[in-house]
């Protein structure tokens, strides 16, 4: 009986820390920051899954989420959404844009209508 108890305790000590750390961020949004920009945001890192942007202030217009692909490469378009102040939108299942565990996304605005402030969530 002691052998089984010791084996069970050993398995629990090894498995519990991994299962807890995996479940800690599952299904929850991770705040990635807030930026103010005129045409393009700076790149924001994502681990995949869903990606959310929220327009905190600025004009209502079309915003395009793109994957940053380096200096001389064309950026992949993830999607375009119309947003108004105080609204958010989700880009579902951005996993196909992840390389080496991370993707870098940025937002491009469709018109020169001043500055906006946007928050990013992964």
Question: How are the SSEs placed, and which strands pair?
Answer:
Blueprint: H1 2-24, E1 31-37, E2 44-46, E3 51-57, E4 61-67, E5 76-83, E6 88-91, E7 103-109, E8 116-121
Antiparallel strand pairs: 1-8, 2-7, 3-6, 3-8, 4-5, 4-7
What does this structure look like?
With 122 residues, the protein is of the alpha+beta class. The chain has a single domain (33-121), classed as Sandwich (Jelly Rolls). It has 1 helix and 8 strands. It has one helix spanning 2-24; strands at 31-37, 44-46, 51-57, 61-67, 76-83, 88-91, 103-109, 116-121. The strands form 2 sheets. Strands 1-8-3-6 form a 4-stranded antiparallel sheet, with no helix packed on it. Strand 4 (61-67) and strand 5 (76-83) form a beta hairpin. The termini are far apart.
Extended strand count: 8
Look at the helices and sheets and give the structural class: alpha+beta
On the 0-100 scale, what is the average pLDDT?
A: 83
Please state the overall shape, judged from the principal axes of the Cα atoms: globular
User: What's the helical proportion of residues?
Assistant: 10-25%
Cα Rg: 20 Å
End-to-end Cα distance? 47 Å
Identify low-pLDDT runs: 13-24
CATH topology (fold) name? Jelly Rolls
CATH top level is Mainly Beta
Biggest β-sheet: count, sense, barrel?
4 strands, antiparallel
Number of domains: 1
What is the oligomer described by this structure? Answer: single chain
SSE ordering: HEEEEEEEE
């Amino acid at each position: 009986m002691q052998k089984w108890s010791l084996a069970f305790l050993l398995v629990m000590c090894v498995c519990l820390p991994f299962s807890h750390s995996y479940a800690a961020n599952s299904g929850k949004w991770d705040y990635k920051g807030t930026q103010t920009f005129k045409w393009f945001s700076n790149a924001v890192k994502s681990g995949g899954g869903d990606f959310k942007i929220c327009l905190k202030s600025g004009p209502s217009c079309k915003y395009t989420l793109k994957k940053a692909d380096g200096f001389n490469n064309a950026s992949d378009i993830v999607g375009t959404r119309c947003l108004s102040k105080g609204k958010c939108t989700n880009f579902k299942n951005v996993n196909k844009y992840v390389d080496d565990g991370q993707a870098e996304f940025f937002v491009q605005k469709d018109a020169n209508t001043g500055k906006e402030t946007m928050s990013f969530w992964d």
